[in-house]
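Why do we care about 3D structure at all? Because function follows from shape, and shape follows, mostly, from sequence. That is the central idea of this module. The next example makes it concrete: a single protein chain, its amino acid sequence, and then its structure expressed as tokens.
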Amino acid sequence: MNRDILIWGAGAIGGTVGAYLCRAGLDVTFVDIDAQHVAAIRDRKKGLSISGPIDNFTVHADSFLPEELRGQWNRIFLCVKAHHTQQACEELLPYLAPDGFVVSLQNGLCERTIAEIAGRERTIGAFINFGADWIEAGAIMYGNRAAVVVGELKGEDTMRLRQLLADLKLFEPRAEATSNIWAFLWGKLAYGSLLFAQALGQDGIADCLERPELLPLWRKMVAEVLAVAEAEGVAPSGFNGFMPDAFAPAKGTVEASKKSVEKMAAFNRPNAKTHSGIWRDLAVRKRKTEVDAFIGQVVAIGKIHQIQCPVLENLVEMIHEIENGRRIQSNANLTELWRKNAN
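And the structure:
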């Protein structure tokens, strides 16, 4: 008999969502490559603890390293970093029931990779924007609520989508389904470019966004993402203060983009998670970021359409320099990024 939900990647995103579903009584199993984290989750004396301003609770659940897994699951929630998607998707396939599906709780356009490996009919898209940080083995800080949206890749209204939405509402009551998940995924790519830029410096998200001298940089950088999205035939959706049209090359104005920046800053300022996950990857966890699978993918798609993205290309280069120890995180990096692209 198949089990129900397999959380592949029990870090900040997968751990938080999985803990809520587990607490609600759903059949949830966790998989992670961190042996200490896996051991903590299945330890009846410790478990997986969610803490922070939103909630505080602990769950105990079955948890395994990938090589320990046996059986099949009806639904696999893929929650690894975007650049690990292909490897993780290839590894999880033996554990996915023939009529099951994979839902991507990730950043970027990971649904494309999942669909190529698992099959388009076994892939569901998701957009997430809530804030959480992995603190240590068995401990996650859930910092703030935010948009959660799910959708079939072709926009159909299906029973499995309705069930997935109902289950995700156990985590985020305002979760919604959409007939155009690509609009939200491209919206996150545009908003995410701001978060990658924030990771160049030391300021938190709200303080960085509100630096007035950087507004022209925000407008030019987001406009590059939107131009590529338009070439792909996608009109990105807004969320949590981010208003794509305010940055659109043909429609956006300085005042409109300034208003959107103010709203994004207001959304982020009260959150316990003050810095982006990208910043945390560089400053705390000292590991590679998702930049190639996120911003780099936009640049690559832009080249297919003969759209140049100089700001995004410079942003990728500077993130790589920090990853490789050839640049330190400094607020001056953002000034430099704008100076390179001001003309």
